Amino acid sequence: xxxxxxxxxxxxYYGLFSSLFAFVLEEDxxxxxxxxxxxxxxxxxxxxxxxxxxxMDSIIKVKGKKFLADEYDNIFYxxxxxxxxxxxxxxxxxxxxxxxxxxMVNYVLQSQYRRDTQKYTDLEDDMGxxxxxxxxxxxxxxxxxxxxxxxxxxxxKVVLNxxxxxxxENVYMHEYSAFYQEVSLLFKIFIEFERIFLGINKPKExxxxxxxxxISIADAEALRRMENKRKKSEEIQECIIExxxxxxxxx
Length: 251
Known about the structure:
Blueprint: H1 3-21, H2 33-41, H3 47-63, H4 65-76, H5 88-93, H6 99-109, H7 127-142, H8 146-173, H9 179-198, H10 210-215, H11 219-242
Helix pairs in contact: 1-2, 1-7, 1-9, 2-3, 3-9, 3-11, 7-8, 8-9
């Protein structure tokens, strides 16, 4: 598979994750997810990614997009359910609108794009915005824009790579995560692929406060819990089955 074909697939993945993680006001924000999943299933990264995509597709067909929207709100915005932080600044500084946001603003200013404040209420270092921006840069790179390729790699190395693993684990372990468990598994596999493709190593685990250590999960324990929760999720899905971004110069 040549690099241009790989970049088209990468852009599709970034577009899918952007749709699933970005907070946008459009009611049809999940409209094209099923179609994207079907395309990605034609050439999955590996067997685990294929299974995650199939499970995502199955949940959507059984429960519908309203279920996705409700689960999204429960995971990311319901203050009663310990919402998952979504900004790079929060993961590195324990607060939003920090240094990573300024860095992302600078990256955006180096491109032809600007944040569409009418569409994206979240800041430039929010996961959803970063993923959408990456999709645009990869598409531009595929069309011959070498500067976009350099910028895309820099953003992954300096911003996304440093907090994405913790974000993925938080999404997977959230009490309301069902569909998003499958999303997080797929996202983890994709990020591992990106590191290999871009030649960027996984960063060392960040220094955590004593409070963070008390509530964190060791890697081995996290894997065990993730596997147990996945099996439980699959059992629930089996029971259910038996029973029954348009932007030009803005991102």
